[in-house]
Amino acid sequence: MLEKVLKGSPKYYMWLAFLGGIIGIGAITYLFQLKYGLSLTGMSRDVTWGFYIAQFTYLVGIAASAVMLVLPAYFHGYKQFKKIIIFGEFMAIGAVVMCMLFIVVDMGMPQRMLNVMLHPTFNSVMFYDMMVLIGYLCLNAIIGWKTLECERFQIAPPQWVKYLIYTSVIWAFSIHTVTAFLSQGLPGRHYWLTAVLAARFLASAFCAGPALLLLLLMIVKKLAKFEIGKEAIKTLTIIITYAMCLNVFLFLCEVFTAFYSNIPGHMHPLHFLFAGTEQGLPWVTYWMWIGAVLAIASLVLLIPTSLRENMKILPWALSMLVLATWIDKGLGLIVGGFAPSPFGTWALYAPTVPELLISLGIFGVGAFIVSILWKIAIDVKREAGTL
Amino acid sequence: MKRSRRQFLKVASLSVAGLGAQLAAGGMTQAAAAVKPSYKKNALALKAKRWAMVIDTREFASKEDFDACINACDTAHNIPQMPGNTEIKWIWKDAYDHTFTETTNKYQSKEVEDREYFMLCNHCENPPCVRVCPTQATYKLENGIVAMDYHRCIGCRFCMAGCPFGARSFNFTDPRPYIKDINPKFPTRMIGVVEKCNFCVERLDEGKLPACVEAAPGKIHFGDLSDPESDVRKLLDENYTLRRKPALGTEPGVFYII
Ligand code: SF4
Ligand code: SF4
Q1: Which of A194, A272, A356, B10 makes a 20 to 30 Å CA pair with A251?
Q2: Considering the entire predicted model, what is its pTM?
Q3: Complex ipTM, two decimals?
C-alpha cells in the first residue's frame, strides 16, 4: 500500500514540499538549540517547562481522542463510524510522534534519552509515560495498517485485530491519565495538584481531538471529494458537545475550589492567568480570556441542535473549540503551574522565536505523517469502493 | 569468491577464539572481585544516619556574613557566576516571605521580617525530586543526602518541577566559561544537566564539614539528626526552629533558628 504515497497530484506534492520546508526550518533551529542549549528558549530557573511540554500535553489528548470513534464502533456496534475510524487512528499516529519529538527537543541531554529505558525507574511517572506512548503508537500503527489492508482485499479483519482494538481503547484512556499524573502529583504546584486534572485532561481531549479530526475531514472531503456520512457527523458532534460541557464544568470546579476555600496558593495561578499580577497583565492573560470567550461561544453554537446541525456554522464552532482547548492546555496549564514560583513570586515566561520555530517544525512533521497516511487510506478506500 | 570465503572463516574463527579468551578473562576478574572489594571507604569520613543542618539566622546580619558562605560553596563546587534568571545557585539568600512562604504574618516582628535567610537543597527525607526522576540520576544516599549523578541526568527537569523549594538549577548553557577559578578537585558540569547543593558529600568523605559550615563557624551547624546527643539535636531542643513548607511532608533536613 506504501506505493500510494508516490502517486499524487501536483497539489499534493506542493503541500508535502511546503511541510518539508517548515520541517527544515525547525530542524536547523534545533541544531542551534543543540549547540547553545535550552538558553535559546524562554525558560528559566523558575519556569523549567514551557511551550514544548505544553504542546506535548495537548497532543497526547489529540492522540487519545481516536478512542471516541473506536469505542462506539467496537463496543456498541455503531457502524457509522467504521468508515472514518482509520482517519482517527492515523491522526493518532501523527500526534504520538509529535508528542515524542516535543519531549526530545525539551531534553537538555537528548543523546542520553535511552537512560529512561536502561535504568527503568518504576516510581517515575515519566517512565510509564514513555511506555504507554510507545505502546499506543504501535497499537495504532498495527491496527490501522491491518484494517486498511483487509479493507483493500475486502475481507474481514482477523480476530486478533479485534483484541488489539479493545486493548487500544483502554490504552487511550491510560495515555492521557498517565500524562496528567506527570504533573498531578507534584507537591507545591497548586494549579496541578488536583485530583480532577486527569479527568479534565480526558474531557478536553475527547472534545478537542474529534473536533480537530472532523475539521480536517471536512477539508479533505472537499479536496478528495468523498462523503463522511451525515449520521457519523451528527453523532460525533454530540460526543464533542458533551465532552466540552464536561470540560468546562470541571474547570469551573477548580475555580470554585480555589476561590471558595480562599486559600492563596490555590487562587494564585488562576488569578495570575486571568487577572495578571500587581505589575500588570502578562501576555497569557489575553490568551486566557480569548480562550474563555471561545469556549463559551463554541458551546452556544454546539448545544442547540438546530445550530449544531447547520453545516455552515459547524466548522466555526469546531475551530473555536479547538482553539479554546489549546489555549487552556497548550498555553495556560504549564504557565499557570509555574508562574507562582516556589518562592511565592511571579515567574514570567514567554516562548522565544527559536522555541516557536522548533515547535512549528514538529507540527510540520505531524502534518506530514498524517497527510501521507490519510492519502494512503483515501486511495485504498477509493479502490475498494468504500469511500 | 573462494578466497573471500576462506578469509571470512579465518576472521570468524579468530573472533570466536577471542571471545572465548575474553570470557575466561572476565570470569577471572569476577573471581578476583569476589575476593576483595574494589571500593573502600575513607577511614576519616564523617558518618551519620541522617545528616541535617541548623542555620542560626540571628547570626547573619551583614552582607559579608552571607557572602563568606556563598563564596566558599561556589569555589568548592565550581559554580558558575551566570547573570539573569537562568543562573546556577546552590546556596543563596532571600527575603523572609520568599523563604517561608506559608508562615508569613501581616504583623510579623519587623526584625525577623527584615532579616535575610539562606536557601539551599533541604535534602528531604521524602524527596519528590528523587521520586520523579526517570533515570535515578537523583538518588538518596544512606546518610540522607540527596545526591545527583550528572552523567545519568537527561535534563528533563522533572525534578525541578517536583521540588517545591526551588532548590535546583539547570545548565541552560555551557557553565564552564562562567567559572572564575576552576577548582580541579571537583568536577565541572556540562550543558543540559540539573545540579544542586550536595551537602558537600565529597568533603564529608574526607572528614571535613561542608564548606558553608566551615565558613560560618558557630552560625551554621551540621550533624546527625538521628543522634539525640548530636549538636544539631541539642540546638533543636533549645531553640525555636522553622522548616520550609513542612505541610508538604517532604521532611526537610535544614532547620532555621529564628
Ligand atoms: S529540597 Fe528539593 S531538591 Fe532538595 S531534596 Fe528536597 S525536593 Fe529534592
Ligand atoms: S533532569 Fe536529570 S535529575 Fe532531573 S529528573 Fe530529569 S534526569 Fe533526573
Answers
A1: A356
A2: 0.91
A3: 0.91
